[in-house]
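Hi W., the manganese (II) ion complex you wanted:
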Amino acid sequence: MIIIFKPEASKEQIGQLCKQFEEQGLQIHASEGKHTQLIGLVGDTAAVDIDLVRANTIVADIKRVSEPYKKANRKFHPADTIVEAGGVKIGGGYFAVMAGPCSVESPEQITLVAEEVQKSGAHFLRGGAFKPRTSPYSFQGLRAEGLELLNLAKQKTGLPIVTEVMDTAHIPLFAEAGVDMMQVGARNMQNFEMLKELGRTNIPVLLKRGLSSTLEELLMSAEYIMAGGNEQVILCERGIRTFEPSMRNTLDISAIPMLKKQSHLPVVVDPSHAAGISWMVEPLALAAVAAGADGLMIEVHNDPARALSDGAQCLTPTQFDGLMGKVKRESNFFAGM
Ligand code: PEP
Ligand code: MN
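Structure:
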């Protein structure tokens, strides 16, 4: 971290600030030019409050030269992390597909969709039991009963399950229901108390990027989980909010290579929530594979027109099967197999 001082800053004032940093265990490297005085801070600067330092009247500018996330940082962990959930590996050359309805609606619906997506080669069954809906009048999910139904579909098919947790208090319920991967939804990416609690579990976490979050914010949220001891984190790009109204969100393809450069964690892409329209899911999914994604999350419904949530973006099992044929060719091709 580099701090540049204003020309009028006195030696005494700079000395006082340096003393504070030294008390935090940081080393100071001072440099004095003709017109500029600056210091370099060396050590664990993750805990330095950059805005507080900037607010100091003698400070002209402050710049981080290393990232504030450590555990998620590829610099300190060059090899790809392989996350294993329910016996399935993701990352480091292992490609995985999570598929299923937006919401769990009934025993028949979830088991039928599970069987269909399994036939097409999906590795995980997805399905929301607790749903984050914009309107309190929309279907809120079957809640605890939805978790039981997911478990039923898991028993029938053997597919591991991934489902969204929205409340710290629900975590034990999810663990008891045999949830193999905890999904943190876009709206909860910065629910820091929940991230901390998930960090105390040993259940892998699928962390979705917030609607208007930067990649650094996403990685800092991953850091919360990892700092607690749970290093089984998968990052998920699911579209961000931009000025373009013709799609539900804008899929940030650039996020895939950038996240993979910055972090060793696997990156999964959800083209369904990015597009919001079913016909756009396939081209976005293939683009994500080409850009290096480690997996996909796709919404599939047996009867999209009657889905209780997100019907417009759900693929039918037949459409999903067609997509999987193409994904298999692409992902094998890119893995050099
Ligand atoms: C979902 O996957 O069901 C969901 C609500 O996704 P997101 O948090 O990305 O909107
Ligand atoms: Mn959905």
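The chain has eleven helices and 14 strands.

W.
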